[in-house]
Amino acid sequence: MMTIRLYNTLSGKKEVLETIEPNKVRFYACGPTVYNLFHVGNGRMFVVFDTVRRYLEYRGYEVRFVQNFTDVDDRIINRANELGENVRDVANRYIEEYFRDADALGIKPATVHPRATECIPEIIAFIADLIRLGHAYEREGDVYFDTSSFAEYGKLSHQSLDEMQAGFRITVLEHKDDPTDFALWKSAKPGEEYWESPWGPGRPGWHIECSVMNAKYLGEEIDIHAGGRDLVFPHHENEIAQSESRFGHTFARYWLHNGTLNINGEKMSKSLGNFIMTRDLLEERSAAAVRFFLLSAQYRHPLNYTQDAMEQAEQSVVRIGRSLRNLAHRREVLLEGPSFARGDEGVRNEVQAEFDGVRKMFVDAMDDDFNTADAIAAVFEAVRLANTYLAEDQVRESELNGWESLISELLSVLGIQLSNDVTPQSTARSEDEEIESLIAARNQARKARDFKRADEIRDELSARGITIEDTAQGTRWFRS
């Protein structure tokens, strides 16, 4: 029986996952507002919930995963004005750029990636229903949600309505009755993109699109709703109010929120000049290391970016990759030898017990609120045990395959793609032959105890980006 426990922001405690439909998960995660490339803080959110999705699938759930694009928003309008471009062109371009960076990070495409502008008829109908039910009102072409009409407003952020009212103020351009009321529909300003509605030309407010997309693509009630901690209030609080007022029952069973990402101990912000775009980080570091770093802390905990932390992530990826290379190399050497040398009669019980122990360590970590930090520790336990195994004189092909398969399996669940980091990459055959010739010359120099010449060849190869490793089974090389 699957016993995944997850921390529910709504209840403030860990709960056992019990889905609406057996073995199926309706999962919604807030996506980007597409007015720029996404920064590394957004990147953490996207990577974290991609990993949650991957793990649910690994555990046998059928996951319908929806992630939206907010493609109509004040920030997109402002960005288009700055660039002197059409709003649609700006939004479309940054949606394409999102997929470029997401793909680099190993983030799987959602089952559906709806856009706000694709759901305008449904948004208008949803708002009309809220007005009809007494939960919303129109003022001079704007429509607002009446928070006083929803008795449980504040239950996600654990604030009372009085506490929230004290922290709000109404601007001179707003016509709402209460500071906590929020816009469902905004009347069009001169020159802005707009759609016709019963309340005049305008566009949807930010919060309404997610309620509508959930209902359209996942149903009136979903299993998991996820996003960054900064979305708890007001965005997710407002989603609950809209959806539960409209449908009269629970909107989402479980609310997951990832912690903040700080830069050198400070909150990331443009004013501090410490704003890091994911694209820029990917140009400096390997994608595997970036994803490893973003998963290196349990998702609810804060994560602190430093150059040292990224360097540690790079070294961790190199360590895992080296273990996989050594397993593959040992297998190649084994298969090239006499058939009787393999001695392969299947996986021995004691080795299988190690496989099972590592896998249980990994599953226990992920079952406990998707604790990727402890799951990564399980990967390194597999690496340690595999390296210990490689030091043995007698190995079996099935066991080498087993270690390689296990490490690759766990990395796949975490979405850490090492293929380009751990496999020797061939370029032109002539260059490979030249490298092999130099390595042969180095080995000959070492046998002749001409260590000066051997070191010169190693330095020459290193300068060309070639790393060589001397193992008990011979010298092997790969491009750094």
TrEMBL record:
Q: What is its EC number?
A: 6.1.1.16
UniProt-annotated binding residues for ATP: 270
Task: Name the source's superkingdom.
Answer: Bacteria
Instruction: Return the CDD domains for the record.
Output: CysRS_core
Listed under catalytic activity are:
tRNA(Cys) + L-cysteine + ATP = L-cysteinyl-tRNA(Cys) + AMP + diphosphate
> Where is this protein localized, as stated in its record?
Cytoplasm
Please name the GO terms of the biological process aspect recorded for this protein, alphabetically. Answer: cysteinyl-tRNA aminoacylation
Gene Ontology molecular-function annotations: ATP binding; cysteine-tRNA ligase activity; zinc ion binding
Q: What is the free-text note on the cofactor?
A: Binds 1 zinc ion per subunit.
- Which keywords fit this entry according to its UniProt record? Aminoacyl-tRNA synthetase, ATP-binding, Cytoplasm, Ligase, Metal-binding, Nucleotide-binding, Protein biosynthesis, Zinc
Q: Which cofactor does it need?
A: Zn(2+)
Q: Which GO terms describe its cellular component?
A: cytosol
Motif 'HIGH' region per record, residues: 32-42
InterPro entries according to UniProt: Cys-tRNA-ligase, Cys-tRNA-synt_Ia_DALR, Cys-tRNA/MSH_ligase, CysS_C, Rossmann-like_a/b/a_fold, tRNA-synt_1_cat_dom, tRNAsynth_Ia_anticodon-bd
Say which family it is in.
Belongs to the class-I aminoacyl-tRNA synthetase family.
NCBIfam families referenced in this protein's UniProt entry, alphabetically: cysS (TIGR00435)
UniProt subunit comment: Monomer.
The record's HAMAP family line, in alphabetical order, gives: Cys_tRNA_synth
What's the name of the protein? Answer: Cysteine--tRNA ligase
Q: Which organism is it from?
A: Alicyclobacillus ferrooxydans
The encoding gene is cysS
